Amino acid sequence: MMATIELNKPVCVTGASGYIASWIVKYLLEEGFTVHATVRDSSKAGSVAHLWKRAEGAKGTLKLFDADLIKPGSFKAAIEGCELVIHTASPFVIKGFTDPHAALIRPAVEGTANVLNCCNAVQTVRRVVLTSSVASIYGDAVEILKAPGGVFTEQLWNNTSSENHQPYSYSKVMAERKAWEICKNQSGWDLVTINPSLVMGPSLTTQTQSTSIDVMRDLGSGRQRTGVPMLEFGIVDVREVARAHILAGFNAKAQGRYILSAHTASLLQMATILRARFPKYPLPKKQLPKFLVKLVAPIAAGVSREFIEKNVGYALLFDSSRSTSGLGVKYRPLTETLCDHFAQMIDDGLLKKR
Ligand code: NAP
């Protein structure tokens, strides 16, 4: 099925106040769309003020709707009349919770089912773009050693995460699987997934709990000044991720999964790039040996030995050619992504001015 989306219809964006979704909403409003933006609580001025700011003077129109992932039916009013639904809402937290099911898996998986069941109920929807993740492609970095050709591609699925090991990754792969299963059992809409690696770049909001912001804060605050483990990430700019959702929404030929990943870099490489522009910050200067990380990190950072064993010391490679050739995404240089993000965190007071 090839979905053609009418440009005069409203577009629904779930989790609209979040780090990635705020950029999607901004671009849609600039392009003149009516955006049905869902948030958990639209009366919380602090978490939606940045969206209203983007709506001022934009060509498009912003409409806010209250919806909670764990409340069946709550997305129906927002989806009504939309042909395109961009479902980004899902918790992106990796620490600070005791019950991974309640914190991550239930809202991700049940939430995706609730949103898609609402799509079925309203019958105007032709395409759903789901924000999945590379966490749905692989669970631990060590899996790169067994990946065909030594590269992570859209063919692969994370089969190793569980509620107890990498619960965030488990929430993402189970949510994506649920989405494809629900999609298969209906014929009204098609599904496209965007599978980004670690998203970095400036945030339009300081209210987000996104782990993306924590990664940058940990690097710049001095918390890691004694050194970092050899942890490598695929990295992609939030602005490219937002654009990709819109391109995937309106390109009739878009189909399947799209890895979004522009570069790979270790924490130390990220710090080195940042130090050149922000020399006064206590960025880490060295890599800690794996045995030391294994000894210290379970206590210092609450990370399991199993996580360290399977993730520290592996170089990663992602094939994101579908995103460039199929969607037309153009990736900016890593330096720009990291430095823009760091500068914005200083401007917003999330990192001390030095
Ligand atoms: P974020 O700013 O924390 O956004 C998450 C959004 O989910 C928030 O808007 C949050 O709404 C919403 N949400 C959480 N629980 C909810 C619930 N029970 N009901 C309704 N909404 C709920 O994080 P983000 O980085 O932009 O993440 C957005 C999406 O991108 C997620 O699906 C995440 O898995 C995916 N992703 C992120 C990255 C990355 O590196 N950032 C990489 C790959 C994929 P509230 O404002 O109400 O809390």
UniProtKB/TrEMBL annotation:
<dbReference type="Pfam" id="PF01370">
    <property type="entry name" value="Epimerase"/>
</dbReference>
<dbReference type="InterPro" id="IPR036291">
    <property type="entry name" value="NAD(P)-bd_dom_sf"/>
</dbReference>
<feature type="domain" description="NAD-dependent epimerase/dehydratase">
    <location>
        <begin position="11"/>
        <end position="248"/>
    </location>
</feature>
<dbReference type="InterPro" id="IPR050425">
    <property type="entry name" value="NAD(P)_dehydrat-like"/>
</dbReference>
<keyword id="KW-0560">Oxidoreductase</keyword>
<protein>
    <submittedName>
        <fullName>Aldehyde reductase</fullName>
    </submittedName>
</protein>
<dbReference type="InterPro" id="IPR001509">
    <property type="entry name" value="Epimerase_deHydtase"/>
</dbReference>
